[in-house]
Design goal:
This protein is an all-alpha fold. The protein has five helices and no strands. The model has no long low-confidence stretch (mean pLDDT 82). Helix content is 72%, strand content 0%. The chain is flat and about 40 Å long. The N and C termini lie far apart (36 Å).
Length: 83
């Protein structure tokens, strides 16, 4: 039976992946969300960016934060724990 997730929960999962750089595997192990769901939600967000400037701005912010964190050598608590 398909699981129903709130928009807030989906946004949290997308942020973990797109902004913090968490892998599908790490998100799946902690939150029990399938890789297919995460991928679908991220794809839907990218599609929404084509029609909504506000959503595109938020998505661009997430990607920029990921770049800055990578550039500065920042590790999320999860990344530090597995390193």
């Amino acid at each position: 039976m398909p699981q129903n997730y709130t928009p807030e929960f989906k946004k949290k999962i997308i942020r973990l992946h797109e902004e913090e750089g968490r892998t599908y595997k790490s998100i799946t192990s902690v939150y029990g969300v399938s890789k297919a769901s995460i991928s679908k939600w991220c794809s839907q967000l990218r599609e929404e960016c084509q029609t909504s400037p506000e959503i595109k701005e938020e998505y661009d912010y997430m990607k920029e934060m990921l770049k800055l964190r990578s550039f500065n050598g920042y590790q999320t608590p999860y990344q530090a724990r597995i390193a």
